[in-house]
Amino acid sequence: MPTRRLVLTRSAAVMGTACSGLLLPELVRAQSGKVRVGFMLPYTGTFSQLGVAIENGFRMAINEQGGKLGGREIEYFKVDDESEPSKGIENASKLVQRDKVDVLVGTVHSGVQMGIQKVARDSGVLCLIPNAGVHAATRALCAPNVFRTSFSNSQPTRALGQAMVARGHKKAVWITWKYAAGDEAFEGFKESYTAAGGTIVKELGLPFPNVEFQALLTEIAALKPDAVACFFAGGGAAKFIRDYAAAGLKGKIPLYGSGFLTEGVLDAAGPAAEGIVTTMHYSDSLDTPRNKKFRLDYVKAFRSQPDVYAVQGYDTGLLLIQGANAVKGDLGAKPALYKAMEGATIDSPRGKWTMSKAHNPVQDIYLRVVENKENKVIGIAAKALSDSGLGCKMA
Amino acid sequence: MDLANFFIQLLNSVQYGLLLFMLAAGLTLIFGIMGVVNLAHGSFYMLGAYLAWSLSALFGSLSLAIIGGAALSVLFGLALEWLLFRHFYERDHLDQVLLTFGLIYIFEELRSILWGDDVHGVPIPELLSASIPLTDNLSYPVYRLFMSGVCLALAAGLYFLISKTRLGMKIRAGAFNRDMAEALGVNIKLIHAVVFALGVGLAAVAGMVAAPVASVYPNMGSQVLIMCFVVVVIGGIGSVRGALIAALLVGLVDTFGKVLLPQVAGMLVYILMAAVLLYKPEGLFKQ
Predict the structure, then answer these.
(1) Is B136 touching A (CB cutoff 8 A)?
(2) Final residue before a domain boundary, out of A280, A309, A342
(3) What CA–CA distance (Å, rounded) separates B69 from B92?
(4) Together in a domain, A323 and A356
(5) Mutation choice for A interface testing from B217, B224, B256 by most A CBs within 10 A
(6) Which pLDDT tens digit goes with each residue over B57-87?
(7) Radius of gyration of chain B (CA)
(8) Same structural domain for residues A57 and A19?
(9) Alpha-carbon distance A140 to A117, whole Å?
(10) Per-residue pLDDT at A124
(11) How many domains does chain A have?
C-alpha cells in the first residue's frame, strides 16, 4: 500500500524531470515549434538566377497560406550549394545535422543532387527536388522521403520524338553535350522517336560545356536530315541557336529540342531562335486563368517575370502545403505525410499534375514554337506523361 | 563523306589548329627561352576573351577591341613578369608550377569579381558575318576565315621576328646560352620581359578572336590549356615549328574524330599524344 509520502516523492520526481527539460521539449517542439525549412540551392555561379527563382516561387506558395505550414510558423535556413557536386554531401549534411531541418528543398544541378540523395536516404529527412532531373533520384536510388516536383531528364524529350514524327520528320540527327543530363535526354528521345517510326541518322556530341559546334554543324549540313533534335541549356543553348543559323541551317533543316533550349535565352539568341519547336512541361504563354494569376502575383511580389524554375519552386511549396495540412503541421508523422503527398494533385500554373509511384510528376508536356521572342504553346505533345521509374523499389 | 564536306571539315581543322598554335607558341616560347612552366597560360586566353567582350561593347567594334585588348594584355604581361615571373627563372620547376597553379585560382577569382560568372556571347562584326556557299547545303562562315587569317599573320610575324631580326637573334642566343649571351652584352632581362609579354599577348589575341565563336565563360582557360600542353608535348617542348605542326595535327584529329567517331572523340587526341610519345619520347621536333 503506497504511503502518502511515496506518492508525493514520485510526483515531485516526475514534475522535476519534466521541468528540467527531459520530457517537455519534445512535446513543445512537435506541437508549437517552428517548422524548419532548409534551402540548398545555387546562389552564386552560372545557376544563381535559377536558385533565386525557385526560392521566390516556394515562398510565394507559402505566403499565400499566410506564411504558415499546417498552422505552424516557419523558420528558413539557407546554404549556397555553388553547383559544386564535390560539396554536395557536406552542404546537405550541414542543413540536416547542424540546422536540424524538417524539410530540405534542393537543388538545380544533377551532380549535387546525387549528394543530397545520399544524405536524404541516410537521414530520412524529407527532401523536395525543385529542379534537378537526374534519373537515379526517382529510379534506382528513389526513396520514400524524396519527392521531385520538376521533371526527369528524359521527360520532355520523350514527348519530343512522337511530335517530330507527327510533323513529318522521319530522319533526324541528335546532338547534345556528352554528360549525364544529355545522355538521359537522349534516352527519352530515342525511345519515343524510334517507337513512332523515325530513324536517328546520327548521334553527335561534344564535352560539357564546350560550345565549339562548327565541325558538328558542318556534318549536319552534309547529312541533310529531315530535322535536328537537341538538348542544350543556358548560355551554350543561345550559342548553339546562333551558330545553327550562322551555318545556314535555319530555314533548311528544322531545329527541335528539349524546352530548356529556349528557356531564358530568347533575348540572347535573337532572331536566330524564331521557329524553333520545343517540348516542355511549362510555357510562359500558357493561356489559363491559373497561369495568368500566378504570373501577375509573381511580378507584384518580386518585380521580375517568373520562369519555369519559379513555377517548379512554387509547386514545391504547394506539395509541401498539402502534406503539412494533412498531418496538421506534424511533419514527424511520416507515413501519413508521405501518403498525403503521394496522393496529392497539384493545381499548378503549368496545369494539374500528380505524383508517380516513384515520386516524379505525371504531367502534360506542351509543344511550343518560338514566335516574336516568346515560347508560344501550339499543342500538347504528351498528355499525363510519366517517367518509367525503372528500378525504383521503395523500402 | 563527299568532297565538299571533307574540304570544309579540313578548313575547320586548320582553323582550330591555328588557334591552338597561337596559344601553344607562347607557352613553348616561355618555356624554351626562360625555362618557366606556365600553367596560367590559359588564363591569358580567358583574359583576352573577357577583354573582347567588354571592349567590343565599349567601342562598338571588335577590331578596335582586339587592338586595344592586345595592348592592354601586353602591358599586363610586362607587369606580371616584372612583379612575379622574373623571380622564378632560376628556381625549380616545382616552384614555378606552384606559382602558376596558384595564379590560375587568383585569375579565376579576379575574373569572377570583375566580370561575374555568366556565359556571354560576343557578336560577330556585320562585315564578317556572311557565309560563303560551297554547295547547296554547305557553306563556310567568313568569320572563321578571318580567324585563320589573323592567326596566320601572327605566325608569320613570329617567324620573321625570331629568325630574321636582330631582336630574334638575341632571343635565340639567350635561349641557347644565357651566360654567354649576357657576357656579349645582350640585355637578357629585357629579352625575357619582351618574350613573356609577347606570349601573353598571343594568348590574349587568340582569346579575343575566338570570343565570338567560342563564347566567353568561366574556366574557359583551363580547358584550352590542356589542349595546349598536348600540342607542346607532341611538337617537342621549346620548338615553335613543332608547335605549329602539332597544333594542325591535333586540329585534324579532333575535328574528324568528332564527326567520324563521335563515341570516342574525346580520347583521340590523347591517343595521338601517347602514340607520338611512344615513337618519339621527346616530341616530334625536340630542339
Answers:
(1) no
(2) A280
(3) 32
(4) yes
(5) B217
(6) 999 999 999 999 999 999 999 999 999 999 9
(7) 19
(8) yes
(9) 11
(10) 95
(11) 2
Q: Is the same domain home to A271 and A302?
A: no
CB half-sphere exposure, A140, CA atoms < 13 A: 4
Smallest CA-to-CA distance from A244 within A255, A233, A235 is with A255
Domain boundary among A280, A296, A331: A280
CATH number, domain of A272, equals 3.40.50.2300
- Residues A294 and A182 occupy one common structural domain: no
How far apart are the C-alpha atoms of A134 and B121, rounded to whole Å? 28
Q: Rounded to an integer, what distance in angstroms lies between the CA atom of residue A157 and that of residue A193?
A: 9
Query: pLDDT-based confidence at B218, cuts 50/70/90?
Result: confident
**What pLDDT, on the 0 to 100 scale, is given for residue A29?**
45
Going by C-alpha positions, the residue among B156, B159, B161, B124 that lies closest to residue B141 is B124
Confirm whether A58 is domain-assigned.
Answer: yes
Does A209 sit behind a cis peptide bond, omega within 30 degrees of 0 on the bond before it? yes
**Across the interface, which of B15, B117, B137 has its CB nearest the CB of A45?**
B117
| A61 domain residue, yes or no | yes
CA A272 to chain B, closest CA, distance in angstroms equals 13
Residues A180 and A101 grouped into a single domain: no
Instruction: Note which residues in 208-227 of chain B have CB less than 8 A from chain A.
Output: 213-215, 217-218, 223
Q: What average pLDDT does range A215-229 have in this prediction? A: 95
Question: What pairing do the DSSP bridges indicate for beta strands B139-141 and B131-133?
Answer: antiparallel
Q: CB contact, 8 Å: A199 with chain B?
A: no
Strand partners, A75: A36
**Cα dist from A274 to A251, A327, B138, whole Å:** 10, 48, 21
- Boundaries of domain holding A338: 12-151+288-362
Per the CB < 8 Å rule, is B12 touching A222?
no
Name the minimum distance, in Å, from the CA of B163 to any CA of chain A: 34
The ipTM estimated for the assembled molecules is 0.84
More confident residue, A231 or A83: A231
3-state secondary structure of A284: coil
- For position B226, what pLDDT does the model report? 93
Residues contacting A246, CB < 8 A, separation 6+: A272, B124, B129, B131, B141
By percentage, how much of chain A surpasses pLDDT 70? 92
Residues A106 and A211 in one domain: no
Q: Which three cell numbers stand for residue B250?
A: 591535333
Percentage with pLDDT > 90 across chain A: 79
Does any CB of chain B come closer than 8 Å to the CB of residue A111? no
Q: Name the residue of chain A whose CA is nearest to B212's CA.
A: A239
Nearest to A238 among B5, B121, B124 (CB): B121
Q: Are residues A126 and A213 in the same domain?
A: no
In a domain, A98, yes or no: yes
A213 and A315, same domain (yes or no): no
pLDDT at A5: 60
Contact between chains at B8 and A238 (C-beta distance less than 8 A): no
pLDDT at A9: 58
